[in-house]
Here is the input.
Amino acid sequence: MKTNFTGTGVALVTPFRKQGTIDFSTLEKLIENLIVANVDYIVALGTTSEAATMNEKERAAVIDYILEVVNGRLPIVLGIGGNNTLDIVDKIKNTNFSGIDGILSVSPYYNKPQQRGIYLHYKSISEVSPVPIIMYNVPGRTACNVTAETTLQIAADCPNIIATKEASGNMAQVMEIIRNKPAGFSVISGDDALTMPMMSVGATGVISVVANAFPEEMSQMVNYCLRSDFNNALPLHYKLLPIINALFEEGNPAGVKAALEIKGMISNNLRLPLTKVSKTLYNKLSTLIANL
Here is the structure.
């Protein structure tokens, strides 16, 4: 089982029934569709899963079910992150990692720590994790950027932090990390629209939202990039780009859940405070998908 997490990872959505309960049978169908499409790994209970709206019992049920369905056929990365370092350390210590190949851990959000605090946060969780860790920089959600300098210091000092999911949107920062990173540390795109540009300068793949609905197309593009075949990757990039942009117009995972419903794969249900996309955007997505 690989643990370098190269290629296409999918930030898996959680299907809900109309009354708000988890739709496990549809979750199974989504997973099987991803496996058939040859994605490289699954990220469970990340932001796209709406994990923040689930209680502990539900989160445990979801990861147990994903492990049961996948049954070793793909690596699984588990989202464990937050802005209380001691709580995350305790959660990692008390998690059963059987069948789980890595952790995706978002940088501390809301309380806006200094860079030294971010470094010590990741150092603390790296010291207790029995599996590799992918750090996650998404300042649009956390309100706090993890700088290239901090990322590189974490990469140098914490051997089991093996990658960063970079969603800063700052290509200069991405290139600075790639240029100076230690051997064995990877940069993963956290932005579907920037996956091909990031891979052209040395990123090793993507943790994708759009791949929930278009796993074949995203996997194919990423595989071309991994082979440095950008002549074939570029048409796929531009083929997907209008849909990617539309999916995020009114937030994630509202956009991708609408797309999945349009494709007949799930019911378009979210948990508050998230709401469905507007009718205008839904119609736009319907047209884009039909044209694709």
Q: What stands out?
A: The longest strand covers residues 161-166. Strands lie at 7-11, 41-44, 76-79, 102-106, 133-137, 161-166, 186-189, 205-208. The chain has one domain: 7-227. The two ends are 34 Å apart (CA to CA).
